[in-house]
Structure prediction request, 84 residues.
Amino acid sequence: MIYDILCAVRDHGRQIKITPLIRYSGLSPQSFAIYYSKLLQRGFLEEKSDSDGRLIALTEKGAGYIREYMAVLRFIREFELEEI
Prediction:
């Protein structure tokens, strides 16, 4: 779920409003709030403001998480470990 939330932000120009992000996550607002607060606390996402309100932005640490997660997925596929 963390990967999916971070990718949703990345895929929208590295920043997105909170309501569309909740929709893209597919989680209830209550469940999303738990993940969201942890992602903020750990520095994967940050909140920014613009003239339209609050934006959620992907940090460099969040982008690094995506890269590393993708490397793990490639490793699993390469060694056909997904079926074990």
